[in-house]
């Protein structure tokens, strides 16, 4: 397994639209293993392939306390969305240290392929439902900050660019 590099907003590659996997083979299973390792190492509850610069419809999620219940979604589609909406504070491994409120469906049913290529459906709510919607946005090239006002988004962009510059300087001094 290998730890992959997570793209940081505002990287234009975060806005690419992922293509369907279709056939789940050894290459996809290796990608899933690497994404799980990367997500656990970064203490995230989810990761979309887009975030590691692979533009295929693959998502990993684990919202369990023990971090031992990975949910793998390949070629996922939302087949049901609750009318009820909820607002949650969201964060993103591609936008570190930024937390903002986003409105989502309270529950959704996702249909997807598992790592054996078998189709399944799963109804989720709470943090898992938020996470499924957040990750499916990534596959469409959408980052959660795009739900915010243009002013907030611009402030985040400036903050992220400033932080990247500072880190580059620290690396040069080391
Ligand atoms: O780790 C993550 N936490 C989180 C918290 C609230 C709403 C969504 C998320 S997803 C995020 C990991 C990530 O960036 N996935 O794309
Ligand atoms: Ni994210």
Describe the model:
- The protein has 174 residues and is an alpha+beta fold.
- The chain has three helices and seven strands.
- The strands form two sheets. Strands 1-2-3-6-7 form a five-stranded antiparallel beta sheet.
- It starts with 25 loop residues before the first helix and ends with a helix.
- It binds ligand GNR and nickel (II) ion.
Strand content: 25-35%
C-alpha termini separation: 29 Å
| Mean pLDDT over the residues | 97
| SS element count, helices | 3
What is the 3D form?
A: globular
Which structural class is indicated by helix and strand composition?
A: alpha+beta
Radius of gyration: 16 Å
How are the strands of the largest sheet arranged? 1-2-3-6-7
Which secondary structure elements does this structure contain, and how are they paired or packed?
Blueprint: H1 26-41, E1 46-48, E2 58-61, E3 71-81, E4 85-90, E5 100-105, E6 107-113, E7 119-125, H2 126-139, H3 150-173
Antiparallel strand pairs: 1-2, 2-3, 3-6, 4-5, 6-7
Ligand GNR binds near residues 51, 93, 94 and 135.
């Amino acid at each position: 397994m290998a730890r992959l590099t997570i793209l940081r907003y505002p990287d234009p590659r975060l806005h690419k639209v992922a293509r369907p996997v279709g056939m789940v083979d050894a290459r996809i299973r290796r990608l899933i293993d690497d994404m799980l390792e990367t997500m656990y190492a970064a203490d995230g509850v989810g990761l979309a392939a887009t975030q590691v610069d692979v533009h295929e419809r693959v998502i990993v999620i684990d919202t369990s306390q023990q971090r031992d219940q990975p949910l793998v979604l390949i070629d996922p589609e939302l087949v049901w969305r609750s009318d009820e909406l909820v607002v949650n504070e969201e964060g993103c491994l591609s936008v570190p240290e930024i937390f903002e409120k986003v409105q989502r469906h309270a529950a959704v049913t996702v249909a997807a392929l598992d790592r054996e290529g078998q189709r399944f459906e799963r109804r989720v709510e709470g943090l898992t439902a938020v996470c499924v919607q957040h990750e499916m946005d990534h596959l469409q090239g959408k980052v959660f900050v795009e739900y915010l006002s243009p002013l907030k988004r611009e402030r985040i962009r400036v903050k992220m660019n400033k932080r990247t510059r500072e880190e580059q300087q620290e690396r040069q001094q080391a």
